[in-house]
Design goal:
The chain is globular and about 60 Å long. The mean pLDDT is 94. It is an alpha/beta fold. The relative contact order is 0.16. It starts with 6 loop residues before the first helix and ends with a helix. It contains 13 helices and 14 strands.
């Protein structure tokens, strides 16, 4: 029967995290596995007010078909925010509304990648990107991620050796490591890419969630021609509405992305776009984000402190300045996948490192999410995990 399916779907693996989340529905399980925003941060009452206002003011139009590019007032609001935060000159025509950043990755794959094209990705890299782009059968090349960003020597060598179609990055509070690229590293990457035709993707779902340090400019803002920014309201308003976007000043690429989206779904949920736009128009988004950052700073500190208290001293972790994750490294000769199996018996879950790499390997790393649990639950989960690590 398998001969009936396409090679691309047969060669694309299921999302490891999505499969884990099925298991963690058990209320006894403390899960650090998903990349879930804390539901107490969702502005439910304000969104209910916006929903009612959208229906009252627009009537049946709010439930009609809409343009592929997206709701113009929402695209204007996104452009204005880029100007306010970073001084970027972005117009609404540079923005395409998508069904979350995951669809953005799929559209980019449709528009740019042929089978066996070369794609560079962080090592370790976001597994959702690996899955989305795998459907287009590229050759992946992992570039080692250091504490301050990509290994520049490895990147330069890969650019020369492969002439890659694109480079995918998450420069702010990277998924899965929680690391952030330094200003110097961003500038160095931009200078390298200026000499190539490689497209740069900067995926930035977490950039607004900085709770220490200072905001840094985008890599592409240093004057990069083939630059693509991805953004999302999933982490700062609500994930369930699935409102994300692609931002690029490359008009030829944007035209192809619009064609790809027309073929995929015609347009993103129009009612959700109208609701988000109304919410932005009638509420202080910055104040809302400040509350989220305060919450996540507390939860991040709770996890880091619990790890320092209960984990053996030979476990290394990253200390995030924002975002939703930290990255742990076990001693040489140990497997995080084996640890996951043992931890599940103690009703605690995390994501082993293997799915974040494009090559087959045994990893001693794992990702922990701190945003979807309160401080007390975080401490209890880390205690359980520490017990497993010590007794394995």
């Amino acid at each position: 029967m398998s001969e009936m399916f396409s090679n691309r779907i047969l060669n694309t693996k299921k999302s490891f995290i999505r499969e884990i989340l099925k298991v963690t529905q058990n209320k006894e399980v403390i899960s650090f596995a998903g990349g879930l925003p804390n539901p107490i941060s969702f502005p439910i009452e304000a969104l209910k007010t916006s929903m009612n206002r959208v229906v009252d003011e627009n009537g049946s139009n709010a439930f009609q078909y809409a343009t592929t590019e997206g709701y113009l007032p929402l695209r204007e609001q996104i452009a204005t925010r880029y100007k306010k935060r970073f001084g970027l000159e972005v117009s609404p025509s540079d923005i395409l509304i998508t069904s979350g950043s995951q669809q953005a990755l799929d559209l980019i794959g449709k528009a740019l990648i042929n089978k066996d094209d070369h794609v560079l990705i962080e090592k370790p890299g976001y597994l959702g990107t690996i899955q989305a782009l795998s459907l287009y059968e590229p050759q992946f090349h992992g570039i080692n991620l250091l504490e301050d960003g990509l290994d520049i020597q490895s990147l330069e060598a890969a650019l020369k050796a492969y002439a890659p179609k694109l480079l995918y990055t998450v420069p702010n509070f990277q998924n899965p490591t929680g690391l952030t690229y330094s200003k110097e590293k961003r500038e160095a990457i931009c200078e390298l890419l200026k000499t190539t035709s490689t497209y740069l993707i900067e995926d930035d779902p977490y950039g607004e969630l900085r709770f220490s340090g200072e905001d840094l400019p985008y890599i592409g803002s240093h004057g990069l021609e083939h630059s693509i920014l991805l953004g999302s309201f999933s982490k700062i308003v609500t994930p369930g509405m699935r409102i994300g976007w692609i931002c690029t000043k490359d008009s030829k690429l944007m035209d192809k992305l619009i064609i790809a989206k027309q073929a995929s779904d015609l347009h993103t949920n129009f009612f959700s776009q109208c609701v988000i736009s109304d919410y932005l128009a009638h509420n202080d988004l910055d104040e809302h984000i400040r509350k989220i950052k305060s919450l996540y700073k507390e939860q991040s500190s709770a996890m880091v402190n619990a790890i320092k208290t209960y984990f053996p001293g030979n476990i290394q972790i990253t200390i995030p300045e924002g975002g939703m994750f930290l990255w742990a490294t076990l001693p040489e000769g140990t497997s995080s996948l084996e640890l996951f199996d043992l931890a599940s018996k103690e009703n605690v879950a995390f994501v082993p490192g293997e799915p974040f790499y494009t090559e087959e390997l045994t990893s001693r790393t794992f990702r922990l999410n701190y945003t979807n649990s309160d401080s007390e639950t975080i401490e209890e989960g880390i205690k359980r995990l520490a017990k497993v690590i010590k007794n394995r």
